[in-house]
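Sequence in, structure out. Go.
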Amino acid sequence: MTTTTKLPAHDVADLSLADAGKRRTEWAAREMPVLAAIRARLAKEKPFTGLRIGACLHVTTETANLALALRDGGALVALCASNPLSTQDDAAASLVVHEGIAVFARKGEDRETYFRHINAILDTKPEITMDDGADVVTLLHTERKDLLPHVKGGTEETTTGVIRLRAMASDGVLSYPIVAVNEAQTKHMFDNQYGTGQSVIDGILRATNILLAGKVAVVAGYGWCGRGVASRFRGMGSQVVIVEIDPLRALEAAMDGFRVMPMAEAAKIGDLFVTTTGNLNVVGRHHFPLLKDGAILSNAGHFNDELELGALETITVAKREVRRFVDEHTLADGRKVYVLGEGRLVNHVAAEANPAAVMDMSFANQALAVEHLVKNAGSLKPQVYPVPRELDALIAKQKLAAMGMHIDTPTEEQKAYANSWKAGT
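Output:
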């Protein structure tokens, strides 16, 4: 597409990065065949004509391809960042300059700018919201309630956001239906496990350049993200410890061959820590006195609340940046503790986030979830819904086909057998 003659409303770091961003967006698109097929169909059918979509997502080249699919389907897309440090500035510039999409995102933006950008997309009066962490939905239900009558539905990309939205629905305050894209099997089984597993290791290595072999790596949480990170650490030769609060997940981790213990025990032996829980103060004030000299703390959950950084600051006597995205905290007894990426998503901050091949399925879910919401506008109650099973299966089948793989189809006899209670020994 040629450069737009009149730029849309935007706030990005550097428009001169647009050409580089376009090339990288095209590179990502080569790994996203399922989304490409959906984009082609949407461009032909135009189901989103005139629809205003306000998206608060990590602004990456993969997200750029999702925005283009929605745009080609007829939508008016406004995009902002769902994390202050996750934006790829070249991808943001490319969407503005080459694609005419309104983008409000800068890598390293402060808290005030972050919320100003969210308000900028809300100023477009979105009819569909797309969230990664539920900040848009929260702001709509607190400070921008006047806009709620415009909203037909929304999607949520991450575990943390789904937790917040379910709490809102439980309290009876959620005002419109939300599709929990994060809970699609083609999202969490692949994006969370394989994508996050790989990209977290990538982020840690880019930030630190340490050798992982022989290190004691402590992974907090054994959900899909945690098991992906743990398996990659093991593959790199690390001794992996799992910290959990769910006995079933802890038992699964043990059966998978990992050591399982409370954080108070793991804090004493860990060289490197990764939190993947979506919860609060997972590594906190009670653990910092137990850490070894040189311990490295990082987070792969959506918010930086998983590390109790405020408490760490209170016992820090000196602080400096020793490498990009590596802050050294010197404690009163001389021990040094290192925090990666200000405690924010280390895979987004220090690396390029999840590979396009898995985001292909996640963003296929996003596009189809928006279409589902539009088709069913008015009939869905204000609650959190799963991605329809048939859409999940369709995406998996299309991904297999794109990989040159196919599966069997059951015969009529097999279908009858599977649905009968009479057959037996």
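Check: The mean pLDDT is 96. The two ends are 64 Å apart (CA to CA).
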